TrEMBL record:
One of its GO terms (molecular function) is heme binding. The keyword Aminoacyl-tRNA synthetase does not apply. It comes from the Bacteria. Its cofactor is heme. This is Globin.
Length: 126
C-alpha cells in the first residue's frame, strides 16, 4: 500500500524507481571504484535495490516483506566501503537521478537522504 504524500508517490512510483535503478546500475557496472565490490551480474542486486528504494521512499514495504529488516550497515559489512567508494556510489546515484528525470526539489532531498545513508555505510579507511 502506498502512503499518500510520500517521496515514492511524488517522484512517480514504481516506474520512476525502475528508471532510477536501471540508470544507477549501468554506471555502477562501469565504475572502476565500485566494480570490485559488486557482482559481475547486477540483476539480483538491482532487484533488491528496487525493493529497498520503494520502501525507503515511502512506498509499499516490499523489501521488509521479502528480506526482513533492512539492517543496511550489517548487510554491507562484508564489503570494503571507503570514503572514495562512498563518493563514487553517490556520484553514480546523482547522475542516475538526472537521467531518470527525477525533478527538483525531490532530487536534492533524495541526494541528502542517500548521502546520510552512504556515510553510515563506510566501514574502511582508504
Amino acid at each position: 500500500m502506498t502512503r499518500p504524500g510520500t517521496m515514492f508517490e511524488a517522484i512517480g512510483g514504481f516506474d520512476s524507481i525502475d528508471r532510477l535503478v536501471t540508470a544507477f546500475y549501468k554506471r555502477v557496472g562501469e565504475h572502476p571504484e565500485l566494480t570490485p565490490i559488486f557482482p559481475d551480474d547486477l540483476t539480483e542486486t538491482a532487484r533488491k535495490q528496487r525493493l529497498f528504494l520503494t520502501q525507503f521512499f515511502g512506498g509499499p514495504m516490499i523489501y521488509s516483506e521479502e528480506r526482513g529488516n533492512p539492517m543496511l550497515r550489517r548487510r554491507h559489512l562484508p564489503f570494503k566501503i571507503t570514503p572514495t567508494r562512498k563518493d563514487a556510489w553517490l556520484e553514480c546515484m546523482e547522475k542516475a537521478l538526472v537521467e531518470a528525470e527525477i525533478e527538483e526539489p525531490y532530487r536534492s532531498v533524495i541526494v541528502e537522504k542517500l548521502t546520510m545513508t552512504a556515510n553510515h555505510m563506510m566501514n574502511t579507511l582508504e
